[in-house]
Amino acid sequence: MPRFLAQAVPPYTEGMRIGLLGGSFNPPHQAHRAISQFALKRLQLDRVWWLVTPGNPLKENGTLHELGERMQAARDVADDPRIEVSCLESVIRTRYTIDTINTLRRRLSGLRFVWIMGADNLAQFHRWQHWRRIADQVPIAVVDRPPQSFRALASPAAKALARYRLPEKKAALLADQPAPVWVFLTGMKLNLSSTRLRNPDGSWKGTK
């Protein structure tokens, strides 16, 4: 692995089951942590990597805080040795999930990855760059975020991938399944969003 890339990849050992949670983390919050810990337990993962993106192609990035600030804030919020924070997408110079997954699968073929997203992201998954290729390359765990459940499960992507849905009771097997495969996880009680934690000027609530 090139040295510049190795510096952006968290520590790992061969065979680990790694959950990938991508986002702008603008700001990071307790729901990010809760979703990660929920996924660690339900999916029987060894680690969750937070991939802090330089910018989301589907969002307005004018109020996006500097990457270093978001990285440090994410580390402070994570506060769990099983959750690692990475700037991989900045290092490989991409904002697209498909590029991130291609890089990780090519360079770290000995790891078993699961892409983690909230139900709100499933609702718009069909708008992601090469979303079908993403689904073909990595198992996906969708964490329910009421009241998004119906909209998410009625979305174009959910309908297109319906026959690949794994029963929730088999969630612990997800990381071992060949893609395409996905599971919809229910039972998460905490429902925060970064949007609700930003002031109109883009500053983070509770900070100067």
Automatic annotation (TrEMBL):
Catalyzes the reversible adenylation of nicotinate mononucleotide (NaMN) to nicotinic acid adenine dinucleotide (NaAD). CDD domains: NMNAT. GO terms for biological process: NAD+ biosynthetic process. The keyword ATP-binding applies. Gene3D superfamilies: HUPs. Belongs to the NadD family. One of its GO terms (molecular function) is nicotinate-nucleotide adenylyltransferase activity. It is an enzyme of class 2 (transferase). It catalyses: nicotinate beta-D-ribonucleotide + ATP + H(+) = deamido-NAD(+) + diphosphate. Keywords: ATP-binding, NAD, Nucleotide-binding, Nucleotidyltransferase, Pyridine nucleotide biosynthesis, Transferase. This is Probable nicotinate-nucleotide adenylyltransferase. Residues 20-198 form the Cytidyltransferase-like domain. Its EC number is 2.7.7.18. InterPro entries: Cyt_trans-like, NadD/NMNAT, Rossmann-like_a/b/a_fold. Pathway: Cofactor biosynthesis; NAD(+) biosynthesis; deamido-NAD(+) from nicotinate D-ribonucleotide: step 1/1. The keyword NAD applies.
